[in-house]
Amino acid sequence: MLAIGGWNEGSSRFSPMVADPARRREFVKNAVKFLRQNHFDGLDLDWEYPTVRDGGKPRDKDNYANLVQELYEEFERESSKTGRPRLLLSMAVPAGIEYIDKGYDVPRLNEYLDFINLLSYDYHSAYEPAVNHHAPLYPLEEDNEYNYDAELTIDYTISHLLEKGASADKIILGIPTYGRSYTLFNQEATELGSPADGPGVEGEATREKGYLAYYEICENIAESDEWEVVQPNPKAMGPYAFKENQWVGYDDEEIVKLKARYVNEKKLGGIMFWSIDNDDFRGKCHGRPYPLIEAAKETLLTDNSRNTIDNTKSVDSRKKIRTQGVQSNARKLGTNSQRSSTTSAPIANRRVPSSRPRYRNISKSKTSDGDEEDREVSRRSYDPSSDNEDVEGRNTVRVTEKIERPKNRNRSKTRNGSTADHSSRRKQSRRKGQSKTDEDEGSLSNKLTTPEPPTTPDPGSDFKCEDEGFFPHPRDCKKYFWCLDSGPSGLGVVAHQFTCPSA
């Protein structure tokens, strides 16, 4: 599917377009033509966000719904005339309740959208004054009127969308394959809510302060025993890790599995990831590529119990446990300081790298049941492909066996900030992995197969890589090369040949 919009786009062009019926008609007409000419399956609208930011108007809420209705109706007309499957229509929706209520006519949008991509991460940003996990499933503290952090959770946002009229089976849960990092004000104060002195140092590959890809996080932990990993409550949120004055909160395999079980239990539509290339694509930390994406996919496919998720106390007696006081910095959703199974296993049962960091499993006695700075996308990223022609993607979840082709990942940048905070500064144009329910025949084992990353150059070409990145084929305009570091194989920068999506 083709996505249009993103954080950099803001509202300056969306708002006047949707306000003019003639311009909407032209947009709809051009959208159908472009999607069909380039063999896309549909359109994903990523306006961030109607009624706010860079020219947004109060009327955007109604006008946006008008655009969605007109797109759907034209997709239906085109399908009935041509006999082709109807083009799909989806929309990115922020996690912030204030943004949802201001800019999205949920019942009307729900009538015409095929699915709703929930950007359920960046509830907290690296530019807040205190450290916090940016994608919690539940709050750590008990649910009461003074626990403002309870609103800044995935469960709260999902419940709000359902109450507003969204269909559960249309909601796609977003899971991050990155962490939000901070520089601690005091190295001795590392718990959630501890004072922060700004964003964390940039990663070697992602090169953005306050943002680390999962592969950077897991490799850092594996390579140094100075990193300490803490589980505040594995049934509420992912772990965080710290070393000296650096602190990062992230999702690991266990919390991803729990979120996948949550999707099953709530009968949601599926899962998306931001982003595929931020996962451990080479499998350096866990012995297989894409451990987070695979964990979600396997859980969605194999967990049929639909049992209610229990997010009460979970303690591994073999680990040191301390009670953690959580400072709540959120006072109102969307204000300045707030802001893509089986039950989570004890940390002792998890795979630990040979260079062992220290682990602590911390649990409260009870928990509630209840965000694009043109960042440089990692040059170490890998796109799931296994031959030189069509590329079969098996790494996006909901669950898909569709044909996908490599996307252009030439240097874009991620946001600094939070989806619930319209005053924070984020700049990156977001991309989301997304796919539809797979109804093709085939064994479960086949669906769980992930192709290994390419390690040998294309033997039919004399093209040589001088550096990592994407490069045109010197003789065939319908093909291109992806130059990728071969990693542990020691082959250096290797050329991999692909066919352009529209060729």
UniProtKB/TrEMBL annotation:
Residues 424-434 have a biased composition (Basic residues). Gene3D superfamilies: 3.10.50.10, Chitin binding domain (2.170.140.10), Glycosidases (3.20.20.80). One of its GO terms (biological process) is polysaccharide catabolic process. It is an enzyme of class 3 (hydrolase). Pfam families: CBM_14, Glyco_hydro_18. Signal peptide: none annotated. The keyword Disulfide bond applies. SMART domains: Glyco_18. InterPro entries: Chitin-bd_dom, Chitin-bd_dom_sf, Chitinase_II/V-like_cat, Chitinase_insertion_sf, GH, Glyco_hydro18_cat, Glyco_hydro_18_chit_AS, Glycosyl_Hydrlase_18. GO terms for cellular component: extracellular region. Residues 391-407 have a biased composition (Basic and acidic residues). Its EC number is 3.2.1.14. Residues 304-468 are annotated as: Disordered. Residues 324-346 have a biased composition (Polar residues). GO terms for molecular function: chitin binding; endochitinase activity. Residues 1-303 form the GH18 domain. Keywords: Carbohydrate metabolism, Chitin degradation, Chitin-binding, Disulfide bond, Glycosidase, Hydrolase, Polysaccharide degradation, Signal. This is chitinase.
